[in-house]
Specification:
Number of strands: 29
Shape: elongated
Distance between the termini: 145 Å
Helix content: 10-25%
Length: 442
């Protein structure tokens, strides 16, 4: 009986060994066939609709590792050239393989043919949901150099790394990005994390002490609803743009902005709240100012803003702005303790601004001085500065006027000045109607 049991066990072991061998041989054969067909497919041109892919110099480096000297991808509107590509599947993590699946390229060049097309009417999208995304294996991509050509614009990026971190997170980082409208090289990163109910996006770019940071989130099942925050800190904005862009940014520095926003892609509706702080350098004879603002608005450019500015000698300005689009704006406010030097004299700029109204291109100003003089101004075309006209009803005893004349001249009230300004010629014309009440009074 015991011998029969031993013989049975031996037979079972032989059968199991045979089955394991057959299974191992089948798996090896399957992997060899898979590798053969993968290499065959990866080495020949492919076409997907209007997109064609042309591999050049395909080579299988080792087991489950492939490479190309170049991949050329063609589309009617853009071309992509990828040089020195390596794709590998490796069970262990080494320096050359930071993840089990790793793709690398030394250079990618993207050329887009910019075309002049009529803008399509904007309309909202349907309600959107994001499926649950999971990465069973870690994967990484490394691009040494990326170049993007769009018409006459050129953007470059160095050392881009895209990694899957955990099962629900992707992270993209780069050493530097530089482009046609960006004078500085900036480094940065952006990550996408899918939590239980939300997709979160975090990003930031840096150069020296300057930074821009973003945060956005959207529900997985209502991905058309997006909320987010943006913070910006720039010390010298003029240094961020190339000299070819002649913008008067040298007057501004130490800009800090914090904004929160909400966007609905189905309605294309946007609402935002912002706090802004910046320094304005002295312009002409005006003093340097520290400006702070609180702004709320929407996608239709309906905007409300409270602006405060303070100078080093207690100069101050306060403006309240209400806008309904870019061509309907109302402003009220006041300016205090502000002077400009004209030769040997000082001219006060203290005004109470009763109203500034912009309708289409036409601007009207109604203001008065603390002493009671009134200033009314008109501009027929704000954008070309055509038709600049003004009327001033001045008191004969304006403090600055009396000071300028050393008390030796007092005019009758009202002194009326009506004039206009020719922006093209840089000339001002004025007709002044006044009488002398006292002269050379000692």
């Amino acid at each position: 009986m015991i011998d029969k049991v031993k013989n049975l066990r031996q037979k079972i072991h032989i059968i199991l060994g045979f089955l394991v061998g057959v299974l191992a041989l089948s798996m090896l054969t399957s992997f060899l066939l898979l590798n053969y067909f993968v290499r065959k497919e990866l080495s020949k041109p492919q076409r997907f609709g209007v997109v064609s892919i042309e591999p050049i110099g395909f080579h299988g480096q080792e087991w489950m590792q492939w490479g190309w000297d170049e991949l050329r991808i063609y589309h009617p509107q853009w071309h992509v050239f990828v040089n020195d590509i390596s794709l590998g599947v490796h069970p262990s993590i080494q320096k050359a393989y930071p993840a089990p699946i790793h793709l690398s390229s030394q250079r990618i060049s993207v050329v887009h043919k910019a075309t002049q097309q009529a803008p399509k009417p904007q309309k909202g999208i349907e309600k959107l949901s994001i499926p649950k995304i999971s990465f069973p294996l870690r994967a990484s991509t490394f691009i040494k150099e990326l170049e993007l050509n769009i018409g006459e614009q050129i953007w470059t990026a160095d050392s881009l790394v895209l990694n899957s971190q955990g099962r629900h997170q992707l992270k993209l980082s780069w050493d530097k990005i530089q482009g046609s409208h960006l004078a500085k090289e900036v480094r940065g990163q952006i990550s996408f994390t899918q939590a239980q109910d939300f997709l979160e996006i975090k990003g930031e770019i840096h150069h020296a002490q300057d930074s821009i940071k973003i945060f956005a989130e959207t529900p997985n099942f209502n991905a058309h609803l997006i909320s987010g925050e943006v913070s910006l800190q720039v010390s010298q904005p003029k240094s961020w743009v190339p000299p070819s862009m002649d913008l008067p940014l040298e007057y501004f520095n130490n800009i800090k902005v914090f904004s929160s926003l909400e966007f609905d892609a189905t309605k294309l509706s946007l609402s935002h709240k912002s706090k802004i702080n910046l320094n304005i350098n002295d312009v002409w004879e005006l003093p340097p100012l520290n400006l702070s603002a609180e702004v709320t608005g929407d996608e239709k450019l309906n905007l409300k803003a409270l602006i405060k500015a303070v100078g080093p000698e207690k100069e101050s300005a306060f403006l309240q702005i209400n806008a309904r689009g870019i061509d309907t704006v109302d402003v009220v406010g006041k300016i205090e303790n502000t002077w400009v030097e004209l030769g040997n004299f000082w001219l006060p700029l203290d005004f109470n601004i009763s109203s500034v109204t912009l309708r289409d291109k036409k601007l009207e100003l109604d203001a008065h001085t603390p002493a009671g003089s009134t200033i009314i101004g008109f501009i027929d075309d704000l954008y070309s500065l055509k038709g600049v006209k003004f009327k001033v009803d001045s008191l004969g005893q304006e403090p600055w006027f009396v000071t300028w004349c050393e008390g030796n001249l007092i005019t009758q009230y009202p002194t009326v000045a009506i004039g206009e300004f020719d922006y093209d010629k840089g000339e001002m014309y004025a007709h002044i109607n006044s009488g002398v009440q006292e002269a050379y009074v000692v």
